[in-house]
Design brief:
InterPro entries: AB_hydrolase_fold. This protein has 456 residues and is of the alpha/beta class. It has helices at 64-73, 89-106, 120-131, 149-167, 181-195, 200-211, 230-244, 246-250, 252-261, 273-279, 283-293, 297-305, 314-322, 348-360, 381-397, 405-413, and strands at 2-4, 8-14, 20-26, 32-37, 77-81, 112-118, 138-142, 334-341, 366-374, 421-423, 435-437, 442-443. The protein has 2 domains: 2-147 and 328-443, Alpha/Beta hydrolase fold, catalytic domain (Rossmann fold, 3-Layer(aba) Sandwich), CATH 3.40.50; 150-320, no CATH class. The radius of gyration is 21 Å and the shape is globular.
Length: 456
């Protein structure tokens, strides 16, 4: 179906053997195409084709209509695919390439093409430029598990293992080869929310569970540091582990990965949890909680190291690595953008990705930007367009422009207030407007080491 207005032509349809697509081409198309890969959608959820991140996404929520408008006003053609739910990486990569073929045949060959996306969609953008550098000129990855899904899922396993081992060793909670995902999630939620119910020792152990995976307890977009109040920290840690991770750690999303992979891809055999804890940015907070509770942190770390481990099915591990577990080649420019207090996809992924690029990729093609805010993908339209301009300049000129926080903040701060709205997860879910106008917040930031990095 094609709809034409004075401003744009809109195309919608389906690929043979693939998903649906949507494309918008402005009347004054500048010859550049941006292809968007959406965030994770749980099995059974609606999955419409979208052109930019929106508040329909499960995790990252942004002011998508404004982002879309700004890009179209600048003359960019926009395209996106749909229908891929669950662990969709292989199908999403396929559909993005089909989309390029369709666009060239029906609209015209772009002068330049950029892949972009949020969270797992950002990882998809990294994989697209790695696998198809002749089809894409650059990639923009927003708030992604940028060092690969293998690392992200093992971190989730580490947090889940700590929840079970410290809070419910006899609970029946399954950490792999999950039978009934709904019942399993309910067990996990009972342990997590029970630990946030006021018992100081249980609360300290909940924080330790977050710390071994560096899933920081922050859901306020305005946050620039970890909470100092222990009650706030424990309750937010419960929110993080329950709302952001439970389905993918214990539930239907985890089972979906196992079904697609043909087994359990994750493992924690041979993991030293003292080492993981030593790498955490949450140590001061955890030690404060243990001191306040009169609990023995060293003893609990011994408990973690002595617990029943989870073994991987090697073929399943190979599948997950093959479909998004090992980004590192940067044959064309890539820009990553990450908030500094992201408990969903820890910012430390950026360091692991950069370290890998330094070994197997082209380091001069990577630029990593950081925004001093809390939770995941809390970016305004102004932030997103500013980051894209960094990538565009590198592709068009062959060199990186000035990416100092001062320059980036001046660029983002020049946008009007309605283009600087940021979604705030800490606001009550029943509030009619959870967006807030926020000033630009690009910062100089060097992430710590990821607690666990493939192949360990």
């Amino acid at each position: 179906m094609t709809v034409t207005t004075a401003e744009t032509r809109t195309y919608e349809g389906s690929f043979d053997g693939g998903g649906r697509y949507i494309v918008k081409v402005p009347a004054g198309w500048n010859g550049t195409l941006l292809t968007y890969t959406h965030h994770y959608r749980y099995p059974g959820m609606p999955c419409p084709a979208i052109l930019a991140p929106t508040d329909l996404e499960v995790g990252p929520r942004m002011d998508g209509p404004v982002i879309e408008r700004l890009l179209l006003e600048r003359g960019y053609a926009l395209a996106g695919t749909a229908d891929q739910v669950g662990w969709m990486m292989a199908e999403s990569l396929r559909d993005q390439v089909l989309l390029l073929d369709w666009f060239a045949a029906e609209v015209g060959t772009p002068q330049r093409t950029y892949a972009w996306g949020t969270s797992p969609g950002g990882l998809a953008a990294q994989m697209l430029v790695q696998l198809f550098p002749r089809r894409f000129d650059g990639g923009l990855s927003l708030g992604a598990d940028s060092s690969g899904v293998m690392n992200q899922m093992n971190l989730r396993l580490d947090a889940g293992y700590a929840v079970k081992t410290l809070l419910g060793p006899d609970s029946g909670l399954q950490l792999g080869r999950i039978g009934d995902p709904e019942a399993n999630v309910n067990i996990a939620l009972g342990l997590i929310m029970g630990a946030a119910g006021g018992d100081p020792k249980a609360g300290a152990r909940l924080l330790l569970a977050g710390a071994v995976a560096n899933m920081v307890p922050v859901n306020d977009s305005h946050a620039t540091e970890l909470p100092d109040d222990l009650d706030v920290a424990v309750k937010t840690q419960a929110w993080m582990l329950a709302m952001s991770h439970s389905g993918v750690t214990y539930g239907a999303a985890r089972k979906n990965i196992e079904e697609r992979a043909g087994g359990n891809p994750m493992w924690n055999t041979g993991v030293d949890y003292r080492e993981l804890y030593a790498r955490s940015t949450m140590k001061t907070l955890v030690e404060k909680a243990y001191a306040a509770a009169g609990a023995d942190l060293s003893a609990d770390l011994d408990v973690l190291n002595g617990g029943e481990r989870i073994e991987a099915d090697p073929a399943a591990t190979r599948y997950l690595i093959r479909t998004g577990g090992f980004p590192g080649l940067t044959p064309v420019p890539v820009v990553t953008v990450h908030t500094t207090l992201d408990g969903a996809a820890p910012v430390e992924h950026d360091r692991a990705y950069a370290d890998r690029v330094a070994i197997v990729g082209t380091p001069e093609n990577l630029r990593q930007l950081h925004v001093g805010r809390g939770f995941t993908c809390t970016f305004s339209p102004a932030d997103v367009i500013t980051a894209f301009d960094v990538l565009r300049e590198r592709v068009e000129t062959g060199s990186w422009g000035d990416t100092s926080p001062e320059t980036l903040n001046a660029a983002a701060g020049a946008y009007p207030e309605d283009e600087r709205r940021v979604f705030n997860f800490s606001k009550p879910i029943d509030e009619p407007n959870r967006y807030e106008v926020m000033g630009p917040a690009f910062v100089n930031y060097k992430p710590a080491e990821l607690p666990r990095n493939f192949p360990f």
